[in-house]
Amino acid sequence: MSTQTEAVPVVRYDGGSLNIRHATLSDLNAIVALENEAFSQDRISRRSFARLVGAPSAAVLVAVEGTLIAGCAVVLFRSYSRRCRLYSLAVAQAARGKGVGRALLAEMERAARERGCEAVSLEVRADNEPAVSLYRRDGYELLGETKNYYSDGATALHFIKSLGQAVLR
């Protein structure tokens, strides 16, 4: 089982290094600011982030470039399910197009496998073309859509990806 204090990999991109690690409560201001920058509505609140950081049913991963948080991924786990849910993936405007989202996805999938998950599901706004493209490129399959899913009436696309053989510990 993955812990919140484990060593984390360093992913190289664009001539620099990106450190992906589990978020801590000291990251709250930065991840809330990132969430507010990335999404105009349907955001995760500071209170919810504080509850999710370190929760056994969640993993909050941050991608750190130098001293700045360039991205954040939130994945939710259920003890009775082999499927986890990518709840949020946000990348700072200045870091977009540099592989941050893809690196966070890869690390999230690794963490999910370690926890025994065999699949990841997610919802994404149908009009979020960069995110939809990222998920498709990374092997996520479209399951369907739900109209009026988001608070502004936008449609959600539902994706799933098989993780293959999970690492059982």
UniProtKB/TrEMBL annotation:
InterPro entries named among the record's database cross-references: Acyl_CoA_acyltransferase, Bact_Acetyltransf, GNAT_dom
Taxonomic superkingdom: Bacteria
Residue ranges the record marks as coiled coil: none
UniProt keyword terms in alphabetical order: Acyltransferase, Membrane, Transferase, Transmembrane, Transmembrane helix
Domain called N-acetyltransferase: residue spans: 18-164
CDD domains: NAT_SF
Isomerase listed as a keyword: no
Pfam name, any one: Acetyltransf_1
Membrane-spanning parts: 58-77
Protein name, UniProt field: GNAT family N-acetyltransferase
